[in-house]
Design goal:
7% of the residues lie in helices and 43% in strands. It is mostly beta strands. It has a four-stranded antiparallel beta sheet with strand order 1-25-24-23, with no helix packed on it. The protein has a four-stranded antiparallel beta sheet with strand order 2-3-4-5, with no helix packed on it. It is globular and about 55 Å long. It starts with a helix and ends in a 6-residue tail after the last strand.
Length: 366
């Protein structure tokens, strides 16, 4: 009898071992997710921008926003004639008055450079200002107690205005100027000016031709600029009036044969015909910013293009990225973005009265 019990135990053990092997081998096969019922709200491969709420409010008419090297936010509120200093949580820390500011940038010395206006006699003219932020501590600056210098004035042509400014390598900077008179072959109103860190004009950038036309280097009505860290490369945006390209990516060259800027992508060269330079793709490119780490480019497109994108995103090779932002996917009030900034994986998008914040779905929990 003991022998029969032993045989039964052996048979049971072998049976259990076979069952275990069956399940073990079966588990090596990947689960078929297609057998699950569809879920319209979840996609394993979905990459999109998710809004962080609430937006920052309380502005009159935003024209420029940056996140500086001091990790503070600076907003040019043209309607209120203020440069507003904020922390990244949206709390306002202070402000200074500059008449109708259109652009704000920060150099590595933490000085702010601002495009705006000033009154001289009976005229209101375009000007560039330098704000020397007052040091509260080693890491904190206060804008309210800052000293402001006027470093450039357009005395001879009161109708000219500066619409954007960027800092490039060596604390030099480039300012985009706009005006109604572009008939002069020597000094047209609409052009880019290149300055030394001492606020002395180096030269107008002649590699872009003022006027209307279908060539990639025609500049008619500039709206925005963005630069790349430690380089002189830049992107300029403009309205679509009279030109085919609302955004021009310029690459700085310094060789024995040539010093200056050339288009990074040239439509006359077949191998360079990338998405970024598809002609007439922007109704009105109001501005531009970049993710400095990935060198992705964001174009803020007023009135949303034919595909409905208010913000178009491109990679460093000029390829369109599908996570570009459509107002229907986020907020209908985002139909007319005016400018933006990018910092610490967050995309800041400004409309005239609000600053929206977005984060890529794949960047959460990283």
């Amino acid at each position: 009898m003991m022998m029969n019990i032993g045989k039964n135990i052996l048979r049971s053990s072998l049976f259990a071992l076979c069952i275990a092997l069956f399940f073990f081998v079966g588990c090596e096969k990947k689960f078929d997710f297609s057998t699950l019922p569809p879920d319209e709200n979840i996609s394993v491969n979905d990459t999109s921008y998710i809004e962080l709420t609430p937006p920052f409010t309380g502005f009159t008419h935003i024209s420029s926003v940056i996140v500086g090297g001091d990790q503070l936010m600076y907003v040019a509120d043209k309607g209120a004639s203020k440069i507003i200093q904020m922390n990244i949580a949206g709390a306002k820390l202070g402000d200074v008055t500059i008449l109708h500011p259109t652009s704000v940038a920060q150099d590595s010395r933490l000085d702010l450079l601002v495009c705006g206006e000033m009154v001289v006699g009976n005229d209101t003219i375009g000007a560039i200002f330098r704000i020397h932020l007052a040091k509260v501590s080693l890491r904190l600056s206060q804008i309210t107690a800052s000293h402001i210098d006027t470093v450039w004035k357009e005395r001879s042509s009161p109708a000219r205005r500066f619409v954007s400014l960027i800092v490039v390598s060596e604390n030099q900077y480039i300012a985009a100027r706009l005006g109604p008179n572009n008939s002069s072959p020597i000094d047209p109103d609409s052009r880019l000016l290149w300055f030394k860190k001492t606020d002395t004009l180096i030269t107008p950038i002649s590699d872009l031709q003022t006027g209307v036309g279908s060539a990639i280097t025609f500049l008619n009505k500039p709206t925005g600029l963005v630069s790349f860290p430690n380089r002189k490369d830049f992107i300029v945006t403009q309205t679509s009036e009279g030109v085919s390209y609302g955004a021009i990516w310029m690459s700085y060259q310094n060789t024995s044969d040539f010093t200056g800027w050339i288009p990074k992508f040239d439509p006359t060269i077949p191998t360079q015909r990338v998405d970024f330079i598809s002609p007439n793709q922007f109704i009105q490119a109001n501005g531009v910013t970049i993710d400095a780490n990935r060198e992705d480019v964001f174009i803020f497109n007023a009135f949303a293009d034919s595909n409905g994108y208010a913000i178009k995103k491109f990679d460093r090779k000029g390829k369109f990225k599908p996570e570009s932002i459509h107002p229907r996917d986020v907020s209908p009030t985002l139909r007319e973005p005016v400018c933006g900034a990018f910092s610490d994986k967050i995309l800041y998008v400004a409309t005239p009265s609000r600053i929206f914040r977005f984060k890529l779905s794949t960047d959460f929990n990283r």
